[in-house]
Amino acid sequence: MIATAVPKKADDDFSRALQIDPNERNTVLNCVKLFKFHNKIQDAKALCSSYLQTNPGDSVITEALRRLEA
Question: pTM higher than 0.85 for the full model?
Answer without folding.
Answer: no
